[in-house]
Amino acid sequence: MLWRDLRAWQIYGANTDVGKTIISTILCKALARRAPKNGLLYLKPVSTGPDSEADNKHIARHASGVVAKCLKQYSQPLSPHLAAKIDDPNHVITTRLGKLSNNDRLLVQQVKEALNLHHNKGGRYAVVETAGGVLSPAPSGSVQADTYRPLRLPVVLVGDSKLGGIATTISAFESLHLRGYDVQAVMLFDIPRWGNAQYLNDFFLQHDVPTFGVPEPPEKHQHERQDRDQLAAYYDEVSSSTSISSAVQLLHHKHLQHVNKVTSMPAHAESIVWHPFRQYGLPQNVIAIDSAYGDYFEAYNQETDSLLNTSEEMSTNLQPLKPASPAKPLLNTLFDASASWWTQGLGHGNPALALTAAHAAGRYGHVMFANAVHEPAIDLCYNLLETLKNPRLSKVFFTDNGSTGMEVAVKMALRATAQRYGWSNKDAETGILGLKGSYHGDTIGVMNCSESSPFNEKVDWYKPWGYWLSPPEIKLVKGQWQVQLPVDDSMPRETGPVTLFPSLKAIFNFDSRHDDAEFYADYITRTLQHLTQHQKRRFGALILEPMIMGAGGMIVVDPLFQRMLIKTIRENPSIISPQAAALESSNSADWSGLPIIADEVFTGLYRLGRPGSSSFWNSGSSLGTEIDVAPDISAHAKLLTGGLLPLALTTASDSIFRTFVSDSKADALLHGHSYTAHAIGCSVANKSLSTLRDLASTSGSVLALSEPKSSNASAGGAWDDYRSSWLSPQDRDIFSFFSPETLNKISKHPLVDSCFALGTVLALTLHSSTSGYNSTAAASLQARLLTTLDEQDRGVHSRVLGDVIYFMTSLETNEGEVRALEGTILRALDEESAAKN
Amino acid sequence: MLWRDLRAWQIYGANTDVGKTIISTILCKALARRAPKNGLLYLKPVSTGPDSEADNKHIARHASGVVAKCLKQYSQPLSPHLAAKIDDPNHVITTRLGKLSNNDRLLVQQVKEALNLHHNKGGRYAVVETAGGVLSPAPSGSVQADTYRPLRLPVVLVGDSKLGGIATTISAFESLHLRGYDVQAVMLFDIPRWGNAQYLNDFFLQHDVPTFGVPEPPEKHQHERQDRDQLAAYYDEVSSSTSISSAVQLLHHKHLQHVNKVTSMPAHAESIVWHPFRQYGLPQNVIAIDSAYGDYFEAYNQETDSLLNTSEEMSTNLQPLKPASPAKPLLNTLFDASASWWTQGLGHGNPALALTAAHAAGRYGHVMFANAVHEPAIDLCYNLLETLKNPRLSKVFFTDNGSTGMEVAVKMALRATAQRYGWSNKDAETGILGLKGSYHGDTIGVMNCSESSPFNEKVDWYKPWGYWLSPPEIKLVKGQWQVQLPVDDSMPRETGPVTLFPSLKAIFNFDSRHDDAEFYADYITRTLQHLTQHQKRRFGALILEPMIMGAGGMIVVDPLFQRMLIKTIRENPSIISPQAAALESSNSADWSGLPIIADEVFTGLYRLGRPGSSSFWNSGSSLGTEIDVAPDISAHAKLLTGGLLPLALTTASDSIFRTFVSDSKADALLHGHSYTAHAIGCSVANKSLSTLRDLASTSGSVLALSEPKSSNASAGGAWDDYRSSWLSPQDRDIFSFFSPETLNKISKHPLVDSCFALGTVLALTLHSSTSGYNSTAAASLQARLLTTLDEQDRGVHSRVLGDVIYFMTSLETNEGEVRALEGTILRALDEESAAKN
C-alpha cells in the first residue's frame, strides 16, 4: 500500500480512551487544508457502540471536506470480537497469534479496496483509525495489529497521557515494531503533571520516532451546543498550530523518504551489492522487496514503474495538490514461489517467530557453545531426533547453513572410513560416491562432493573427488507417470529406458517392483565392483539427496534406486573394501560398507510433506525411517527455522560419533563457527518444528508422528484437503499441496516436457533446445508470471534453473492460495504459448 | 537468582491501577500458609506517594507472618523518575534503552542482597512487586523491566481487566518476553462484561502461560473500619480459593521445572549434543547457561553444586517447609571473558538488538536475495564501507560466517590471479601466501589456506596449499615491550632475535623504524624470489589477519612486517609472476602482484579499538586505511551483529569484481547460502555498527570517524578513560580497555612468559614445558577463575588456547567492570602461584 500521490496512515492507540479520535480529527483537519475537496478519506474499518456516536460522524462534523466512512458498525460498546458475537451468534472467534482467518482477510481486502477506490478518484490522503488499543481484538478474535499487518500502513501512534501511560505507550510501540510496522510519529496530550510527553519525546528519539504533544481538549461542557462549539474552536486552533504543522510536515517527509528509498533501491543495489549467482555482464532486473507477509512479497519493480522521477508527484510542496490521473501503486504483491530460496515454511512476518526470536535475544543474546550448553539448544537436539524418527541417530552437531552442515557430514564420514579401513589422509585420495546432478553447497569442500557442473567448474580450487552414478528419474509426461532410465545408456534395459506407472503412488509400492529392485542392485554391484576392484578407487561416503536433487535442476530420483544403492553397499561391504567384511560389527545400527549421508537440507522437514525425506526410502508407510535404509548421518537446514534465519544441524549415529573419541584433542571434530548453536536460531527452530508437526498431524488415523490435536480432534489436520485430493485415507503420506488435476493439465501443456509435484514442490521442465542450467527456456515464462495477476491483483515471483521452472508454497499456505497460484500458472503458460505462435 | 529452597517471583502490572497490590496480597497470603513464620518476604523496591499508603504496609496489615519491606519510598505519587527528581533535585534521569545506569545497578544490587539475606535466614518465598506498568520508568529513568532484567526473576503479570485491557496486557507480556523474562502466569480480575480474562486465557495458552481470573475486590466502603474488614474477608476467601491454590501449585511446578531443567542440562548435553572442538575421551565440565545479561552469564556448574538430588529440597510437597541450612544459589554469575567466542560487542540480552531483530522478522521474515534486494541489506553495505574507510573497496558480498566469508574471499582472489596471469585451474595448483599461525575457519576450502596444525591435520581432505612465512611477534615481557624474530631462525639478524621498545606506541611509529622496514623487505623479497623463481611456485592471494592471529594462539604480529609484505608484493609484482609487470594497470586502486585479503573476522569492527584492523598497517594515525596498504578484499563477521547472530560480509575492490563480469553465467561468482543477507542479520548489523561508531567516537579532537555526540559534545567519548590511561590526547587510537599498569604487573608475574593487550583483548602466555595448542598449562588457571569471585560474587568464564589464556570485554563494558576483572585475574594468578609452591 504505497503510492506516490496518495499518503495513507493508520492511527493506533496505546490504549482505549487515549484520544485517538480527537487526534485523528486534528490530523484530518490539518491534512484536509492541503488536499483538494474530497481528497482526504477518513476510514474507520470497525466501530462498536451506538451509530450516533460513531467516530466517522464525529470527523464528518468537525473536519469539513473529509470523506468519512465506517465499514462495519457493531451495536454494543464492547471489544469488537464480543460485539460481533452479540450481533451475530454464529460469528466464530479464533485467537491464534498471527494466523489470519477468512474474516481478517475479508476486512483487509475491504480496506484495500476503499483505499484503491479513493486513490483512483484522485484522493491524496487517507487516515485509517483502528479500534481500542494496538492489540485489541478485531472482530475475528485476532489482535488487530495482526489483522491489518498485510497492509503495513505507516502508523501514527496515539500515546497514553495518563499516569502509567509511559509504560503502555512504549509497550504498544514495541508490539507494533515487532510486527514490522513503521511507527512514524507518536502524538499524545501533553499533561505536564505526569510528564509522559516529555519522557516519551526523549525515549522515542532512540527509535528515530518524533513525539508531538497536543493540548488537552476542553472539559466537556454540560450543554451540547456549547460543547460542540468549544470543541470546534479547539480543533480549529490546534489543527493550525505550529506543532501540528510540524507533525504533518514530518509525515510528508517520511512518506517521501519511503518512496525514495523504495524506488532508489535497485540503483543502489547496482552500485554496491555483489549479488550471489549474478552475472553482471548480462542484463538483469533487480526487484526491491519493501516487506513481506505470509506467502507474499510487497515488491517494487523498476521495469513496471512508469512514473519514475516525475517531479510533480515527488513534490515536497505542502500546498493543495491538483487532482490528476492517479499513479499506479508502487508496490506489487507477488507470491514468493521459490519460498525465498526454499527456506520459507511458516510465512513471512510471522509474529510468533518474531517474538520467539526476540525472547531468545533478550534472555541470552548469543552465548558461547564450546563446553557450554543452553536450554534451546538441548531442546532442539531432542526435538529434531524426535521429528526424524531415524533409529540410527543419537548425536546432533550445530553449524550455520546447509553447506557447513554438509562439510561436517563429510568430515564425519571420511574419518570413519579412514579409521575402519586403515586409510591415511596422506596417501591416496578418498572420494565420494553419489548421483549425477547432486549438489551440496558452495563451500569448496562440499563442492568437491559433486560432479563438474556450471556451478563449480570455474572455481579454482574445485576438484571433483568421487564417482557419480546416473539415476533413473520420475516424471509425469502427458498425463503418464513414468520412471526414465538415464539417457547416457549406462543402465540399458531390455524393455527400454522408460517404465510406465498408473500413478505416483504405484512407483512407491516397492513390494510390487521386485524386478526393478533386482535390476538396480545388479547394475549397482557391477559398477561398484568395477570401480573398487578394477580401478582400485576408494570411497569414503555415499551421499544422497533423498527424492529430489534441487540445485541440480529439480531432478526427481526413483527412491527405489536410492534404496537399493544403500542396501547393496550395506549388505556387501566388501564391495567397498576387501577387508570390510571382517571388520563389520554385529550391531545393526553401526554403519556398514560406507557411512550413508542424507543431505535433507532441501527435501527434509516437511518440504515434501514428510518430517524426514529419508523415509521415502521405506518399503512400508511409516514416517520414521526403517533401520536398514536409514542414513548414518543427515544434514538439516532451510526449513529448520521455519524460514527465518540461518541454522544447520548435522546428525550422526553413535557408531560415527565413536570414531572421534580418543585421548587426543586433535582427534576431536575440530569444527565450530562463532555463532554455533546461537540461541535465537535454536529457539526459533524449536518453535518451527513444533508448529510444523502440528500442521502435519492428521486426524482419524494413527500415524507415527500424528499428535492429538489440542482438544479439537474432530477438526482434522491442516493438510487433510491436500492429502485427500491425492490419496485414499490409508496412504496419506505421498501427496502434494498442488492438485493432481492441475499437474495433469500442466503435463499436457504444449510448452511442457514433463512435470512433477510432491509436498509443497511443483517443477516443470519446459521444451528447450539446450537443456540444463545454461538454458534460458524458462526465463520468459518467469518474466510473464510477474505480471500475470490473480483476482486480487497478485503476481508470482518464481525462480528458474535453466529449462526448469519451479513453484513452492510455505507449509501454511491455505488451499485457496494454492489454487489461485495454480490458476495463474496455467494462465501464464497459455499466454506464453499464444505469444510464441 | 535461582535457589532450590527459595522461590521468588516478580509481580509486574500490565498498567498502573490494575490491582497489582491486591493480587500480590492474595498471593502472599496463599504462599505464607505454606511457609514457616517469616519465611515469606514481600519486597517493594520502589514506592511513590505518602508513606502511610505504601504497599508494604498494606501487605503487612493483611498478610500476617509476611516480612514486608520497601527499599525506597518517594513522597510524591508520580512516576518514580519524576518523584525521585522532586525528592532530590540533583537526581539524574537517563532514558537510553537497555543501558543501565549506576542508579539501576545499585537498585538491583539492593534487591539481590535483600533476597540473599532472606534466603540465608531460611526464607522460602519472596514476592517482589514493581511500580506502575511493565515499562514504567524506574527512578533512574530506565524502564523498570530493563532495570530489573539482571535478576530475571520469574514473572507473575497482573493483567488489565478494564475495557482495552486485552491490548495492554498482551503488549505488556510482549515487552517482558522480548527482554528475556519468563512470564509464568497471568492473573487478573475477572469482569465478565469485558471478557478479558476469558480472551487472555485462550490467547496465552499459545505461549504456554496459564491465566487465572480473580474475583473483584469489594467496592470501597465509606467507613475505614468496615472497609478493612470487608477487604480482610475478601482476602481470606480468595486466597484460599481453589483457583488461587491452582495458581500457587502451578508456580511451584514451574519453579521445580526450572530447577530440573537447569540441573539436568549437563547430563542431557552429554547424551545428545556433539560439541564443537570437544574430545569426548577426555573429562570435561559442561557449563549450563541459564541466561546472560551485559557481560555476564548466569550459569549452572555441576561441579560446584553440592546439593544435587537431595530429595527434601526438590520436594513437590506444598506443606510448610522446615527452615533448614540454606542451599547455595544454583546459578553463578560469570564474566563472559571470551566474549562468547569473540562475538560479543553490545552485551547479552540487549533489548535494542532484540527489538531490532524482531522488527526485521516482523517486516520481512527472510526474503530471498538472488536478484532481489531489501533496505537493511543495502543500508548495511554502505554502512560497512563507510565504517572501514578503505579507499579500494566498492562491493559487498553476503554470507553466513567468517569461514564462508573467507571461502568467498579466496574464490575472488584465485579467479583474479588465474585470469590476469593466464593460469588454469586444471593444471598446476595455485597456493596461498600467508603467515605461520594463521587460521581462517573450519570449512575445508579455507582450512587449506593454513599450514598444518592440530586444528586441521586429522581432517581427511585437508591439504595445505601455499607457503607461510614466520612473522616477528610483539610481546610485553617483564615490563619490557619487544619485537621478537621467529624462533626458527628463518629471519636471522645481527643484533639478535629481539628488539626492545620503550612503549607499545613506539612499535607503531613506523617512520622511526626505517632499518626494520628494510630488513623485512629484504627478507621477504629473497624468500618470494626463491619460491617463485627457484621452486616455480604459484600464489593466488596474500591472506593476512591484521595484528593478531587469534585461533593460532593470539599471536601478535609486528604490523610493520605485514605492511612490508604488502608493499613488497604490490611494488614488485614480477616477484609473483614474470609477466606481471606488463599487465599492471595504472589505476592505483587496482590490485597489483597479488590480491591482498584481510581476514578481519576476529580483529576488525572495533575489537582492537579501531573500525578496521587493516588501519594498523598505516604509517599515519588515520583510522581509514592508506591506499598503498589497503586490502583488495576483506572479510567481516563476529562483531558485525554486535554479538547476536551469524552474518558475514566479504568486501572487494572494483578491480576484483570486474574479474567475474562476462557474458557467461558460469563466470559469475556462483556462491550463495539460503539465508544470504537475511533481513534480521542485516538490521541488527546496522544497529550494531551505528552503536559501535557512537561508542568509539571521541570528543575534543577531529578523527576521521568521530561524529558529533548528539547535543552533548562536552560529555566525551565512551572510551575516553581507556584511551587516556594509555596515551597522550593526540594519539588515541592505540589503546586497550585493560590498563597499562595491570598489563605491566601481569608481565612480571612469575607464572607468565609474556602478555599483550590491545582494544578489548588481553592475552597471557603462561610458562609451559610444551607450547602451543596441545599444552594444558592454562587449564588450571582457567578452572580457578570460575570460582575466584569479585566483590559482587562474580567469577570469570575464560577460554584457553594451549598455553595461552585470554580475556576479552564487550565494547560496552564500563571501566568499573574492567578493573574488577583485572583484579580477579591478578588474584587468581597469585593463588595459582601459591598453590603450585
UniProtKB/TrEMBL annotation, chains A, B:
GO molecular function terms attached to this record: adenosylmethionine-8-amino-7-oxononanoate transaminase activity; ATP binding; dethiobiotin synthase activity; magnesium ion binding; pyridoxal phosphate binding
UniProt entry keywords in alphabetical sequence: Aminotransferase, Pyridoxal phosphate, Transferase
GO CC entries: mitochondrion
Transferase as UniProt keyword: yes
Biological process (GO), any one: biotin biosynthetic process
Top-level taxon of origin: Eukaryota
Alphabetical list of CDD domains matching this protein: DTBS
Keyword set includes Disulfide bond: no
The protein's name: Dethiobiotin synthase
Organism of this sequence: Lithohypha guttulata
Phylogenetic lineage: Eukaryota, Fungi, Dikarya, Ascomycota, Pezizomycotina
